[in-house]
Design a protein that fits this description.
Helices cover 29% and strands 27% of the residues. It is α+β, with helices and mostly antiparallel strands. The chain has one domain. The strands form two sheets. Strands 1, 2, 5, 6, 7, 8 and 9 form a seven-stranded antiparallel sheet that branches. Strand 6 (158-166) and strand 7 form a beta hairpin. The longest helix is centred in the C-terminal third of the chain and has 31 residues, at 222-252. The chain is extended, with a radius of gyration of 26 Å. It starts with 9 loop residues before the first helix and ends with a helix. Residues 222-228 have low confidence and may be disordered.
Length: 256
């Protein structure tokens, strides 16, 4: 007799956990390094760095080589090595009458404080950071971070989307389980890098800090909904496995 997943005994907890928790797409554990970062576009004004600095700058060919579709669009930006998703907070203070042991209520003492977006990139023969990001930072500084129309030749901002990927079935393709889009993104800081004659055991990683205007979070995309609906089949499969585990435990512990 198969052990029901609603059984609250010690043996019943294992198949219940497998079937109702890990077998549920909403509460199953995601894969760790399943994410993609995509730049909507790279502002053309970046290639005009020589007009803002001096004629010694020449990054046009390198810019075109490292921003091609296979590198930037096939699976997002393939050079992105790590992403630090910004947190959110706001300042608080205690106000009101202070009397005896009474606690004063906590109120908002200012607006929200958001952190900057940080992305680390792998350095390749044609450096993405040195030929795209660094000139971008300099051009942004010259343009003063003021608003420009989208079709302006001086538009220096873009949008960046961070996708978290989910997998529920080895026979089904991955799906987007979480999407964060940052709007009005521009780089404001490029990390320094030291080069020496020590043994090279890992690729060079460069961290870049980006400012943005605002962001949105989308966890209700069509793909996610479809997978959750399709996940009912997975729950049935895992439930079958859980019952088999329960039967094996019954035999092991001498239960019928």
């Amino acid at each position: 007799m198969a052990l029901e997943t609603t059984d609250k005994s010690f043996i019943g907890q294992i198949p219940f956990f497998l079937s109702e928790i890990l077998g549920n797409p909403a509460s199953s554990l995601p894969k760790g390094a399943q994410w993609v970062v995509e730049f909507e576009k790279f502002p053309a004004v970046i290639k005009k760095i020589a007009e803002f600095e001096n004629e010694g700058w020449n990054n046009t060919a390198a810019f075109d080589a490292i921003t091609t579709a296979p590198i930037q669009k096939t699976k997002g930006c393939l050079l992105a090595h790590a992403v630090s998703v910004p947190g959110d907070s706001f300042a608080t203070t205690n106000e009101g009458t202070q009397y005896g042991g009474l606690l004063r209520p906590t109120i908002n003492s200012g607006g929200r404080n958001s952190e900057n977006l940080r992305i680390s990139f792998i350095d390749t023969n044609v450096s993405f950071v040195e030929n795209v990001i660094r000139p971008w930072v300099i051009v942004t500084a010259h343009l003063g971070m003021i608003a420009y129309p989208e079709d302006s030749e001086n538009q220096y901002r873009t949008n960046v989307t961070f996708y978290q990927i989910g997998v529920t079935d080895p026979y089904e393709p991955p799906y987007v389980r979480h999407k964060i889009t940052y709007y009005g993104v521009c780089p404001i800081n490029v990390g320094s890098e030291e080069y020496n004659y020590g043994a090279t055991t890992a690729p060079q990683i460069r961290q870049v800090e980006f400012a943005y205007n605002y962001y949105t979070i989308d966890s209700n995309r069509g793909n996610t909904i479809n997978v959750i609906e399709a996940g009912k089949n997975l729950v049935i499969k895992v439930g079958t496995i859980a019952n088999e585990v329960g039967n094996a435990l019954n035999v092991l512990f001498g239960k019928k």
